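User: Fold this; tokens only.

Assistant: Input:
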Amino acid sequence: MTSYDLIVIGAGIVGAACAECAVREGLRVAVIEPGPVGGGASAAAMGHLVAMDDDPAELALSNYSLRLWQRFADLPQAEFSRCGTLWVAREPRELDGVAAKVARLAAVGVRAQRIEADELYRLEPELVPGLCGGMRVPDEAVVYPPRVATHLLELARGGGAHCYLGRRVVALTANGARLDDGSELSGPVLLATGCALPQLLPQLPMRARKGHLVITERYPGRVRHQLLELGYADSAHGDADSSVAFNVQPRPTGQILIGSSREFGVEDRAVSMPMLQRMLERAFAFLPMLRELQALRVWTGFRPTTADGRPYIGAAAVRADTWVAAGHEGLGVTTALATAQVLIDQILRRAPAIDPAPFLPERVLR
């Protein structure tokens, strides 16, 4: 039986970040991934790096992670693009809420500003006429999640991590994990398996939330910022069976990535034409020129979602030497690096840079 200081199950962007962080801290690490690296939720993510201010705990985690992302700002593999974010207001009441959002972001050191309609159209002239203004967050960025996950895993391997790619964990054992080839690994276990978490740890509930994405051919300069409607959080944090929100971003390739849809209770990975049409019509309502563009690919994926919308980051509580980093819904890319650092700090019995209490898995077991 091979022994490790940490056995990371899952090599999406969160699991890969945890493995890389653990190796940097001197731990002997194994990574187990049955499918492509970054091929699950990470491959169906838009790649936002954004500070979400609707929940204080979420803001702390995302802001901490944005600082850690500076390490990869010049990495070609990440396709890191500091395009900034424009939050768009359709109605005066949405614009009225911007001052509070700017203040919350400023309190943690994030630059943001309210912009009026004339400035909005100067920045993004293709937006539909009649919008009220919005909020600009100039330092935010986008990355390409599967490549980042691959790079993080390469860094971990370069530091000595052993990767069991193409292998699946069939059971957690008293001492570690058993793989599908019958071999057993010994050591503390970290579950970074997203929607599949309940398969190995059924005590922690998780819901899969389906989403659609569309990417276009190359149209450089047509969209300059990642664009979201100010009502986006209502869709992301709501519990409706289905919802859509305006969410469009320019890729460094010149392509335009279009989201976002959310559906509970759907297990089929096939593209749903009604949901796709609903999502695109929402995008067209803000950015009519999208109707003229040629789509290159449409695909779907599943976001892992906890009951309260916060990820599990910490000890599993129901099993000794078992840790969890899962359930990030639409913020897994933004918060991957902070998740890893907060988790490894807990494993090493150090105080994390932010309060981990809102994310501890034990909150659902009380």
